[in-house]
Amino acid sequence: MQMIDVALIDYDAELITENGKTYVLNDLLQSLSWEEQDGQLSQKATLKLVNSKVGTHRLMSLAKLNCMIRIYGKWGSGRKKLFEGFIWEWQYVHAQSRDFTISAYDPLIRLQQCKDFKYFSKGLSTPAILGNICGDWGISLSYQWKKQMTHEKKVFNGEAISDMIIKLLDEVKQQTGEKYIALYKDGKLTVSGYGTNKDIYEFKGSNTISTSDKLSLNNLVTRVKIIGKSDDKGRSKVDAVVNGNLKYGVLQEIIKRDSDKDLGKAKSEAQATLQERGKPEESIQVNAPDLPFLRRGDAVEMSAGNLNGTFYVIGVSHNAATKQMTMTLVRKKSA
User: Fold this and answer.
1) Which whole-number Å values give the CA distances from 221 to 119, 251, 280, 303, in the listed order?
2) What is the chain's mean pLDDT, rounded?
3) Nearest-CA neighbor of 267 among 222, 225, 219?
4) Number of helices followed by number of strands (H, E) in the chain
5) In the beta sheet, which residues pair with residue 313?
6) SS3 167
7) What does the alpha-carbon distance between residue 127 and residue 150 come to, in Å, rounded to a whole number?
8) Residues 6+ apart with CB under 8 A from 93
9) Cα–Cα distance measured from residue 273 to residue 267, given in angstroms and rounded to the nearest whole number
10) Most buried of 24, 34, 39, 237 (most Cβ within 10 A)?
C-alpha cells in the first residue's frame, strides 16, 4: 500500500496557443477540474479563467477553440502530466468578474464526434480490427488486455467511431466475462484489464471524506432467451433459454442469433450477461483527498463505511481547488 501527503499536492495548467506559445495559467485560474466517466473514451477538463491581460492580449483572445491545454500534478515525487487535450467548448458571460470557462477533451473526443462505415470479414482478431479503425484516424493503439477473440463478420453502418470500438470490446467482454478499460494514455488508445496499476492506494475512514453505497434491482437479468433468425413471415423461434438466479423473479433479456452466430457462442454470451448483470446493481461513490494520477481501471483498497476490500475505479473526477476527488467504484469479484 502507498501513502501520499495531500499537503504536497500541487497543480499546474498550461495553454498552448495557435502559434505554439505556452502560457502558464496558474495565477488566472478560478477553478480547475478534470474527469473521466464510465462508458466514455475521452477525458474532459474544465477551467474557469480570469480574462486578464497576458502581455498585450486578453487571455480570452488567446484561448481559442482547438488550442491545447495541459494539466500537471506534483505530489512530492516530481511533476507528471495528468491531462492533454484541445479546447472544445468556450463560454464567456459578461459580468463584473469578467471570467470565462473552457472545456477541453483529449484526442479521443474526435472518435466520439466522427462517424464512418466499416466492414470487416469473418476471422479477424480484436486487436486487428481495432488497429484498422484507429489507424484511419491517426490514433495509435496499445492493446494490453489479455482477452481477445476471433470475430464474425462486422458491419458498422454510419456509426460513431467510439461506438464501433466499444461494441467490439463489449463483444469480447460478453464472451469472456472479463471487463476492460479503454482510455487515452501516453498518446495512445490503451485497452487493458482492471487493476493493472502497480501501486495500490488504501482508503480508510481516517483518510476518506464520505462513502455512498446503493443497491437496486434496475438492470438485473435473471433469464436470457436466445432467439433464432426470423423466417419470411417475421417469426422467430426460441433456440434456448438460459436461467440465472431466479431469487428475484424473472427479469428477461433477449439475444438475437443470426446466421453468423452459432448457438454455442450465443449461450456463452448469455452466461456472460448473467454473470455481469445477474446480481442487484450496486452504485458506489467515494469522496476522498485527491490522488491526481488516479484513473479509470485502477484498483484501490477500501476500509471505510461499509466498504471493505478491493475495488476498481470506473469513473473519477478531480478538483484542484478543493484537492478532492470523487470516485465511482465497482467491487472486485471473488475468484
Assistant:
1) 32, 5, 9, 30
2) 91
3) 225
4) 5, 23
5) 329
6) helix
7) 10
8) 100
9) 10
10) 34
Grid cell in block for residue 222: 435473471
pLDDT tens by residue, 209-250 = 999 999 999 999 999 999 988 877 778 889 999 999 999 999
Question: Cα angle vertex 131, ends 130, 137, to 5°?
Answer: 95
| Residue that is written with C-alpha cell 484501490 in the block | 300
Provide the 8-state DSSP code for 75.
S
pLDDT at 272: 85
List the grid coordinates of 52. Answer: 486578464
The reported pLDDT for the residue numbered 260 is: 65
> From CA 45, how far away is CA 47, in angstroms rounded?
7
Contact 73, 45 (CB under 8 A): no
Find, among 251, 199, 203, the residue nearest to 225 by Cα: 251
Amino acid making up residue 250: V
> Predicted confidence band at 94 (pLDDT cuts at 50, 70, 90)?
confident
Q: How far is CA 190 from CA 43, 44, 181, in A?
A: 13, 17, 8
In the block, cell 453505497 appears at: 213
Which pLDDT value is given to residue 1?
A: 47
| DSSP code at position 125 | B
